[in-house]
Amino acid sequence: MSTLRESFERASLPAVSWLSSLPRFVPFLAVLALLVAGVLLPPPGWLLVAVVVLLLAWVLALAWPRLTGVERMMRVAVIGLVVAVLVTQAFPRT
Q1: 34-51 pLDDT tens trace
Q2: Exposed / middle / buried, residue 91 (Cβ in 10 Å: 0-12, 13-18, 19+)
Q3: Which class for 52: exposed (0-12), middle (13-18), buried (19 or more C-beta within 10 A)?
Q4: What is d(CA 67, CA 11) in angstroms, rounded to the nearest whole number?
Q5: How far apart are CA 47 and CA 31, in angstroms?
Q6: Alpha helices in 1-94 (DSSP H)
């Protein structure tokens, strides 16, 4: 019987294979474009920032067992910063 982790990795394999076939700068530019567009667009733009959070969390979950403690902290911090941007975009002060 496979564990939940193995099932998650197996389900993610096609997407990871496709991403690894792209040039290294393409996923970075895609995430950057989504983040910038989400910040600059009017109120429903925060949904693009939410997509970035989900993508970063997915990649972190896949890489978690292979990361050291410092690498984990840094990646969680990046996701935390993007979540802070998401919250400020979704619930602006008036």
Answers
A1: 999 999 998 899 999 999
A2: exposed
A3: buried
A4: 20
A5: 13
A6: 4-21, 25-40, 46-63, 69-90
